């Protein structure tokens, strides 16, 4: 009878260990660094085009004032984020000048700003673009990196790469190019790293030791 109980405990413990291991693996795998480039058609002068950074695509939004499914919105040269007066999310932005996109390895601590009634946060300062005026009337992206907190609180770094369908010939205006790196686990890290969880490893070791003692 005692052997049967020991065998039962061993089987139960092994199953529990397997479930725990799978759970830990799922937790680690779920964190992902997203590096995307998008061209957003924002040619409509009346309606916003909304983008979800986690999905990496344009999304249909019925009511931007109540939805957390978008992070950033575009309408010609205008840009809003899902926070402050523009939406119910946590989106806020920190603009970084005199630094390269590649050199920003984590989201810095600073004064992140959401959209207000007076001004959209990405329009602050010099804004994201320079208008050349006549005779060309070009829209050229400024060398600014925006660190963005998304609608749900994750961090991304983002830069504007163009305003035209063909940026070489400057044809097809209202097509905004962006490049961004997003960390979807809530951390500020913008580089890939080996996932480690000391507490999970300790718990796994303890669980296995408990099973062997049965």
Structure description:
This protein has 214 residues and is α+β, with helices and mostly antiparallel strands. It folds into two domains: 1-31 and 198-214; 32-186, no CATH class. It is 21% helix and 30% strand. It contains two helices and eleven strands. The protein has helices at residues 2-30, 198-213, and strands at 33-41, 49-52, 57-59, 72-75, 78-81, 92-96, 129-131, 139-141, 145-149, 155-166, 171-183. It has a five-stranded antiparallel beta sheet, with no helix packed on it. Strands 3-2-4-5 form a four-stranded antiparallel beta sheet, with no helix packed on it. Strands 7-8 form a two-stranded antiparallel sheet. Strand 10 (155-166) and strand 11 form a beta hairpin. It starts with a helix and ends with a helix. Mean pLDDT is 83; it is low at 4-8, 14-29 and 194-214.
Distinctive features:
214 residues, four-stranded antiparallel sheet, 21% helix, 2 domains, five-stranded antiparallel sheet, single chain
Shape: globular
Low-confidence stretches: 4-8, 14-29, 194-214
Strand content of the residues, in percent?
Answer: 25-35%
The number of domains is 2
- Encode the helix/strand succession as letters: HEEEEEEEEEEEH
How many runs of DSSP E, i.e. beta strands? 11
Rg, alpha carbons:
24 Å
Mean residue pLDDT: 83
From the N-terminal CA to the C-terminal CA, the straight-line distance is 14 Å
Largest sheet: 5 strands, antiparallel
- Given helix and strand content, the structural type is alpha+beta
The main sheet orders its strands as 1-11-10-9-6
Helix content: 10-25%
The number of helices is 2
